[in-house]
Design goal:
Blueprint lengths: L21 H12 L1 H7 L3 E5 L5 H9 L6 E6 L2 H13 L5 E4 L11 E6 L19 H6 L1 H7 L3 H8 L9 H8 L1 H4 E12 L4 H10 L2 E11 L2 E10 L1
Parallel strand pairs: 1-2, 1-4, 2-3, 4-5
Antiparallel strand pairs: 5-7, 6-7
Helix pairs in contact: 1-3
Length: about 230
């Protein structure tokens, strides 16, 4: 499964949108390994949460292309929505992009294939909205907080693309807690995480919710151990 073209994106775009990196390419590799399985499953509604540059959902739209399908992407970052639209057009695929927070506009149990490379980096706060309003005391004593405090609004949207809160799990936990609402009865969820997110705890939580999860691919890079989980309803 070839990486979709994204040469149309510029350094200016990457001031506001997460640039494809090792985590993006690992998720692409994992989905390539799953391609035969997914083609046999024929998911009708495919959704990526937080598409960033749009290469993941564009690849799925290209290689799972068949009648009666729908490919969607949702992102709270308007710049990411624009980048995803441009990437889909550059690769001649049809992706519907929605600028919103997670999945508030989708019908219950409507997603057959869910994919997410979430913000997973552990950061100094468990409330990501606070990157827009950091107390002065925190600013003075936390270099990371001070950097965020001094960022522009668009820079803060970029920070939200990787800043995951305490343990890096704020968005991950929100998605998992809503899986029963999101996924179709036979839905599949591919989630990228890192070792610091405590995969064992995540998988234990999923098991108590009635989901089967297992690691299908991992890669160690400098400073991170990336992991892709495949999650299905038992």
């Amino acid at each position: 499964m070839e990486t979709p073209s994204y040469s149309h994106l510029t350094s200016e775009d990457y001031n506001h949108v997460y640039e494809p990196s090792e985590d993006s390419f690992l998720l692409l590799d994992a989905l390539e390994d799953e391609l035969l399985f997914l083609r046999n499953k024929k998911p009708l509604i495919c959704l990526e949460i937080g598409p960033g540059s749009g290469i993941i959902v564009s690849a799925l739209a290209k290689y799972l292309d068949y009648q009666s399908h729908g490919f969607f992407a949702v992102d709270i970052n308007k710049y990411a929505c624009d980048a995803t639209l441009r990437t889909s057009k550059a690769n001649s695929v049809n992706v519907q992009i929605i600028n919103m927070d997670l999945l508030s506009s989708f019908k219950p149990n409507s997603i057959d294939l869910l994919v997410c490379n979430p913000p997973y980096v552990p950061t100094f706060t468990n409330n990501l909205d606070s990157v827009c309003d950091i107390p002065e005391q925190t600013k003075l004593y936390d270099e990371e907080a001070e950097s965020v405090y001094n960022s522009s609004k668009s820079d803060k949207m970029l920070i939200k693309s990787w800043a995951g809160g305490l343990d890096g799990c704020e968005i991950i936990n929100r998605i998992i807690s809503n899986l029963d609402y999101i996924l179709a009865p036979n839905g599949i969820f591919y989630l990228l995480i890192i070792k610091e997110n405590n995969p064992e705890r995540i998988m234990k939580t999923l098991k108590t919710m009635g989901y089967e999860s297992h690691q299908i691919k991992d890669r160690k890079i400098r400073g991170e151990h990336l992991i892709v989980l495949k999650i299905t309803k038992t």
